[in-house]
Amino acid sequence: MNNFIIRSITGIIFVVAIVASFLRPEAMVLLFSIVTGLTVWEFTGLVNDRPGVTVNRFICTVAAVYFFYAMTYFCSDLYGGAAKSVVFIPYLVTIIYLLVAELYLKQEDPIEDWAYTMLSQMYIALPFSLLNVLAFTTTSQGTVSFNTLLPLSVFIFLWVNDTGAYCVGSLLGRHKLFPRISPGKSWEGSIGGAVFVLAAAWGIGWFDNLPSTGASSTLALSTGMLSIPEWLGLGLVVVVFGTWGDLVESLFKRTLGIKDSGSILPGHGGMLDRFDSSLLAIPAAVVYLYTLSLF
Asked: DSSP readout, 137-168?
């Protein structure tokens, strides 16, 4: 019972913090730069426990956080002035250093060091940094504006999917989705979660396309940038890739022989445990939205 209370309190704080952060660009940038750093630090600590692996935790973490801020600068006017790609040069220099350093460190298995170093950036730093692409959009007048609803909706869809899949799977789950990696997931639960997400996507799409008067304009959330069918498509993309993201992290933990990636979030495990679905859902959402813009 005590664990349930702790888990509930942590979950509420977690959701409130994320929702609140998307109300202000500075809050979003601060929160997710911290999340990026903590997640990379956690990841590199886990892989360093593997025999023969020695990844530079500090430099990987600093590089990941820097890349997040570089993407913020590139996508927005938050730091003043026009975004310039030169901001990525220090990050590229750092990556080159991490590769060249293995020539001199004489580690037991430099190939694994390289692989895990790059994985920390591709698997964690890049997806979180792409939140900036969702959050900062260019208006028809050519100015950059902060979009609350689009990045927040990705997390709403993930939460609704998890809740719906758990409820439906607990009641009707019979056929295992991926028994080798995650025996608790069922096809029935996954389909149920998708149905819940489609309902949520329809609701968000309806709200997003309200006329720019009344509560909609007061909250400054609706944008009308996506039609209801496009919101439904985004919901399905998040469901599919969010589920794969969950399975990828489950495979990672099974390979390492651990139950939780950490204990920083009481009752919920580590940062990877809480953000696993989003690590594939965010890039997939960006690709989906760019695909829409092409047609």
From this structure: EE-TTS-EEE-SHHHHHHHHHHHHHHHHHHHH
